[in-house]
């Protein structure tokens, strides 16, 4: 694409200003959800600093839409982008929301060849956007109840559980013993998903029992043998606990 990539630490506004002064970028891409455990930046603060320096901004709002009060363009970004597939929509569809002038330029350059969707596909996206906040709320309730149950000792092998907004809202479950690999292997035999299909897509029905993300493993290398991620998806807490108990006893 002929793009030269310049990186900046969004956790430090002074660094952003310095990088802009040195490289004079034409645009900036900001991810809404956190990638690393140490990330603490304010999306609105980062966007305000970029705007002050005259840099147009595009935000990656995947996993944030329908879960936060304001997405990127509502915090001052030029454009917000997100996958509609991750919001129970059809495969291969996404949305761009933001300033009218920028949207008009996109429409002018993507006018044919199926670049813009309409009809049945567009209606499927709309139905997904209506459905998503309800399912996210149900899923969040299951996750919070699982957190309370696991930390109350209903599964003795579990040392602790925490909720992490690591893109998707998931449970990080830590065991007393290094049994994470065994649990993941046994869980998929009992109906759990071993890998995400589209990360909260319409196809993700069973709970996801998955290894820790690469960034978490890099931050705490030894934790990978002791902890896993669980996303209940469309399942209830009883199903998640059954799979977890049976996997530990296998």
TrEMBL record:
Q: What is this protein called?
A: YhfS-like C-terminal domain-containing protein
One matching Pfam family = YhfS-like_C
Q: Which GO terms describe its cellular component?
A: cytoplasm
Please name the GO terms of the biological process aspect recorded for this protein, alphabetically. cysteine biosynthetic process from serine; L-homocysteine biosynthetic process
Q: Where is the YhfS-like C-terminal domain?
A: 145-244
Native source species? Citrobacter koseri
Q: Which PANTHER family match?
A: HOMOCYSTEINE/CYSTEINE SYNTHASE (PTHR43797), HOMOCYSTEINE_CYSTEINE SYNTHASE (PTHR43797:SF2)
Q: Which domain of life is it from?
A: Bacteria
Molecular function GO terms recorded: cysteine synthase activity; O-acetylhomoserine aminocarboxypropyltransferase activity
What Gene3D superfamilies does the database record attribute to this sequence? 3.90.1150.130, Type I PLP-dependent aspartate aminotransferase-like (Major domain)
């Amino acid at each position: 694409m002929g793009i030269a990539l310049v990186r900046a630490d969004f956790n430090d506004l002074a660094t952003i200003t310095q990088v802009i002064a040195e490289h004079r970028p034409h645009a900036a891409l900001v991810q809404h959800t956190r990638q690393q455990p140490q990330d603490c930046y304010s999306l609105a603060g980062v966007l305000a600093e970029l705007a002050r320096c005259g840099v147009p901004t595009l935000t990656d709002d995947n996993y944030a839409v329908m879960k936060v009060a304001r997405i990127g363009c509502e915090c001052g970004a030029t454009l917000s982008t997100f996958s509609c597939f991750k919001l129970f929509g059809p495969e291969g569809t996404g949305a761009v929301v933001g300033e009218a002038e920028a949207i008009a330029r996109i429409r002018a350059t993507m006018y044919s060849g199926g670049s813009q969707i309409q009809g049945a596909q567009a209606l499927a996206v709309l139905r997904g956007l209506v459905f998503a906040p309800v399912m996210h709320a149900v899923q969040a309730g299951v996750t919070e109840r699982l957190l309370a149950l696991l930390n109350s000792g209903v599964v003795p092998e579990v040392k602790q559980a925490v909720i992490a907004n690591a893109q998707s809202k998931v449970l990080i479950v830590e065991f007393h013993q290094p049994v994470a690999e065994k649990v993941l292997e046994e869980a998929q035999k009992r109906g759990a998903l071993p890998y995400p299909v589209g990360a909260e897509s319409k196809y993700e029905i069973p709970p996801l029992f998955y290894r820790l993300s690469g960034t978490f493993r890099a931050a705490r290398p030894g934790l990978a043998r002791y902890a896993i991620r669980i996303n209940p998806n469309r399942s209830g807490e009883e199903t998640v606990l059954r799979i977890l108990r049976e996997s530990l006893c296998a």
